[in-house]
């Protein structure tokens, strides 16, 4: 049986990885500055992570959510402590799209409305309502398009109020730093204004932290730079360091009831151990501070490259914008310099999403490669 051909693939076959490096079948070493779409938060094959998962799978890998699972409670407690999101409740699922799907569904249950407001260049997943709220018509099938979604310009607070004043919007879903869209970020006045409007019009504010959460921006969540209180926070990617897990944090103004949400695999024993270990390592190794420190170093180095027209993002969710498409540059970085980087909807943007364990010496390798390719 052949694979359904939906991914353009680079001719590289990784077989092992350690911290910020990936090795292919020929034992060629690559510097990973993309982390598999911001998934690798504490480095590949972290010894504490490997030991924790190995120990758990030897005891109990999975059982259903119809029984007690203290590992879910431990994860929720650790997440509350490290994120500072006190009094929120946790629902666990399996991915970022599923997290946003549950967030939108819960918002609609909560206020009885069905329309969604999202933003230009936003990306929230590839399933049902999540993909309908994504600004990419190429991945929205007719069955998804029946969802009622209004996509507005990021930063247009007047348009947000005009939409919410109709009193049919269940949720505003927003990435405080856009990921796939190209690392665009609006102002504090905009995000805080949206929060005020959501509360005024009984609309749920959903902070999509699938890519930006778990310390990637230097704060635990990207929204924490602003004075906002999301009703629902969606999480995934860096949450499991490669083990599939997602979830939503739910403000106490939204009440639970039996059967409201459900999942078979969400919050399984292995997933909980994986995510709890990620949180422990982030705390023990001060990786949020490292994200801030390395970010500052990266930005200073980037200023020395004349071809870089704009430096975008925060922490270790960064982008280098050029005045030309970066597809060929990205290939040269991979095949000639052995460095993984990422692309975005913005064709001129090189995305940098490394493990939070990255060091200055690794940043230097990137900029040496860029200088050699760009001559300046």
TrEMBL record:
Residue ranges of coiled coil: none
Matches recorded under InterPro entries: Aminotrans_3 (IPR005814), Aminotrans_3_PPA_site (IPR049704), Class-III_PLP-dep_AT (IPR050103), PyrdxlP-dep_Trfase (IPR015424), PyrdxlP-dep_Trfase_major (IPR015421), PyrdxlP-dep_Trfase_small (IPR015422)
Cofactor entry: pyridoxal 5'-phosphate
UniProt keyword Transferase present: yes
PROSITE patterns: AA_TRANSFER_CLASS_3 (PS00600)
Keywords associated with the record: Aminotransferase, Pyridoxal phosphate, Transferase
Sample GO molecular function, one term: transaminase activity
Database matches in SUPFAM superfamilies: PLP-dependent transferases (SSF53383)
Family in the record: Belongs to the class-III pyridoxal-phosphate-dependent aminotransferase family.
PANTHER family: ACETYLORNITHINE AMINOTRANSFERASE, MITOCHONDRIAL, AMINOTRANSFERASE CLASS III
The protein's name: Acetylornithine aminotransferase
Organism: Olleya namhaensis
Lineage start: Bacteria, Pseudomonadati, Bacteroidota, Flavobacteriia, Flavobacteriales
């Amino acid at each position: 049986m052949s694979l359904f051909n939906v991914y353009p693939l680079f001719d590289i076959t990784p077989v092992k990885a350690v911290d910020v490096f990936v090795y292919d079948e020929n034992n060629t070493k690559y510097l990973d500055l993309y982390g598999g779409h911001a998934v690798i938060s504490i480095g590949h094959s972290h010894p504490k992570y490997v030991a924790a998962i190995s120990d758990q799978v030897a005891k109990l890998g999975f059982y259903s959510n119809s029984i007690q699972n203290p590992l879910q409670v431990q994860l929720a407690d650790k997440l509350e402590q490290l994120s500072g999101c006190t009094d929120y409740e946790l629902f666990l699922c399996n991915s970022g799209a599923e997290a946003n799907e549950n967030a939108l569904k819960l918002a609609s249950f909560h206020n009885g409305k069905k329309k969604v407001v999202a933003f230009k260049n936003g990306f929230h997943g590839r399933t049902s309502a999540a993909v309908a709220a994504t600004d990419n018509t190429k991945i929205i099938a007719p069955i998804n398009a029946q969802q009622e979604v209004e996509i507005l310009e990021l930063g247009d607070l007047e348009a947000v109020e005009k939409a919410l004043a109709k009193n049919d919007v269940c949720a505003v879903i927003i990435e405080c730093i856009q990921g796939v869209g190209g690392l665009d970020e609006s102002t504090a006045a905009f995000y805080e204004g949206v929060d005020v409007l959501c509360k005024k019009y009984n609309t749920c504010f959903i902070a999509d932290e699938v890519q930006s959460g778990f310390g990637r921006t230097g704060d635990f969540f990207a929204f924490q730079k602003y004075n906002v209180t999301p009703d629902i926070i969606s999480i995934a990617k860096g949450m499991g360091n490669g083990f599939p897990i997602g979830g939503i944090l739910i403000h106490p103004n939204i009440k639970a009831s039996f059967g409201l949400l459900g999942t078979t695999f969400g919050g399984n024993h292995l997933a909980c151990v994986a995510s709890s270990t990620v949180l422990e390592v982030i705390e023990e190794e001060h990786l949020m501070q490292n994200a801030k420190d390395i970010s500052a170093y990266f930005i200073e180095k980037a200023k020395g490259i004349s071809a870089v027209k704009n430096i975008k993002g925060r922490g270790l969710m960064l982008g280098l914008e050029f005045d030309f498409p970066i597809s060929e540059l990205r290939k040269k970085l991979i095949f000639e310099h052995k460095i993984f980087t990422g692309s975005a909807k913005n064709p001129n943007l090189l995305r940098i999403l490394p493990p939070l364990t990255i060091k200055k010496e690794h940043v230097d390798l990137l900029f040496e490669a860029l200088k050699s390719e760009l001559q300046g």
